[in-house]
Write a structure and sequence with these properties.
By secondary structure, the chain is an alpha/beta fold. It has a single domain, classed as Rossmann fold. It is 40% helix and 24% strand. The radius of gyration is 19 Å and the shape is globular. The protein starts with a helix and ends with a helix. The model has no long low-confidence stretch (mean pLDDT 91). The structure holds adenosine-5'-diphosphate (ADP) and magnesium ion. Adenosine-5'-diphosphate (ADP) binds next to helix 2. GO terms for molecular function: ATP binding. This is Urea ABC transporter ATP-binding protein UrtD.
Length: 260
């Protein structure tokens, strides 16, 4: 790239960037779980984060969501370059960071429709929750969300009757109801059937068309199907980054996965 092209590309790249983590480290009892980590993601980007157990993948999500405070480094968010490190977990969620945990937290006694409606209501401000009456628009939005997660034929069903995979999708739908700009998903494929895994990749790919989505996943078939850039973490740092084919040819990555 020549100098003019570089100058033109830089501001655009900045503008499209949603999250920028740089030089972040955190130690637990002297053990560096995250070690000078740098990571950035664009506004409508899907990214897979892989790496062996203990690489720091979950801790990375804990830092972005404000659950864990790093010892050093920066975590910069959005067009106004706000530091997430000065915000608590609730404020970070309000700013547009949604996180899906492994265990679904759907209300089992409620229907799929009501779970989605509650998530939509909770996305509103505190005072409107008190006086909340669903409008036709809200009901239509619930149906759209159900379509996005492939549960539009299950709206009347009790959530407790859903399969493990369907509950996971419902929870993704409940997060999407809050319209996060960044969705963090930790090991979604665990416990899913192959067909459920396939459907989950479709949901995440679709969601990433209008927001940033970061997916931590061990299942390489799942990661391949995401068809996105991959970041390999190892010992709390980025070991390699690029297409899955690119990173799996990296000798350091091969060493880490196959042992020395
Ligand atoms: N709250 C904590 N207290 C102490 N050690 C922790 C804590 N969270 C994570 N760790 C340690 O940090 C390392 C990275 O963990 P984690 O982020 O869970 O890895 P991954 O998700 O990649 O498997 C592990 O060695 C883990 O034991
Ligand atoms: Mg983990």
């Amino acid at each position: 790239m020549n100098a003019a092209a570089a100058a033109a590309a830089t501001p655009a790249a900045r503008k499209d960037r949603l999250l920028e983590v740089s030089g972040v480290s955190v130690s637990f009892d002297g053990f560096k779980a995250i070690n000078n980590l740098s990571f950035s993601i664009g506004k409508a980007e899907l990214r897979a984060v892989i790496g062996p157990n203990g690489a720091g993948k979950t801790t990375f999500m804990d830092i972005v969501t404000g659950k864990t405070r790093p010892d050093e480094g920066r975590v910069i968010w959005g067009d106004r370059s706000i530091s997430l490190l000065r915000m608590n977990e609730a404020k970070i969620a309000q700013a547009g960071v949604g996180r899906k945990f492994q265990r679904p937290t759907v209300f089992e006694d409620q229907s799929v429709f009501d779970n989605l409606l509650m998530a939509l209501r909770n996305a509103r401000s505190a005072w409107s929750v008190l006086f909340y009456r669903p409008t036709d628009e809200d009901r239509a939005r619930v149906v759209t969300l159900a379509e996005e997660i492939g549960l539009d034929s299950q709206l009347a069903r009790k959530s407790g009757e859903l399969s493990h995979g369907q509950k996971q999708w419902l929870e993704i739908g409940m997060l999407l109801a809050q319209e996060p700009q960044l969705l963090l998903v930790d090991e979604p494929a665990a416990g899913m059937t192959p067909a459920e895994r396939e459907h989950t990749t479709d949901i995440l790919k679709e969601a990433a068309k209008t927001r940033a989505v970061v997916v931590v996943e061990h299942d390489m078939e799942f990661v391949r199907r995401l068809e996105c850039k991959v970041t390999v973490l190892h010992e709390g740092s980025v070991l390699a980054e690029g297409s899955l084919d690119h990173v799996t040819k990296n000798e350091q990555v091969i060493e880490v996965y196959l042992g020395r």
